[in-house]
Design a protein that fits this description.
By secondary structure, this protein is an all-alpha fold. It has helices at 4-34, 38-62, 66-86.
């Protein structure tokens, strides 16, 4: 069993790091799906990144169970990055 301080530390680390990785994947996926010139894609990726990051932090912290939050973070990251890779994995 984890102490409350350790659980809080893990949850905050998961929200910050896992949310950052998820936001990067989702913003690259959004840019790949929308398409456009390199400049347009870069603008899209930068704008939607902050939106995705705020939403992912709030979501990972709001989930009641720490273990459920970890599995949801891992699952959504695998799906987002897997879809991006399957669509060609274009970076900006």
């Amino acid at each position: 069993m984890l102490s409350p301080k350790m659980a809080l530390t893990i949850r905050l680390t998961l929200a910050l790091v896992g949310g950052y990785v998820l936001s990067a994947g989702l913003s690259l996926l959004t840019g790949t799906i929308i398409g456009g010139t390199e400049r347009e894609m870069r603008t899209i990726v930068h704008f939607v990144f902050f939106l995705y990051y705020a939403i992912s932090i709030m979501t990972f912290v709001a989930i009641n169970s720490l273990y459920r939050s970890v599995w949801i973070a891992l699952g959504t990251n695998v799906v987002a990055w897997g879809c991006w890779w399957l669509l060609g994995g274009q970076t900006v």
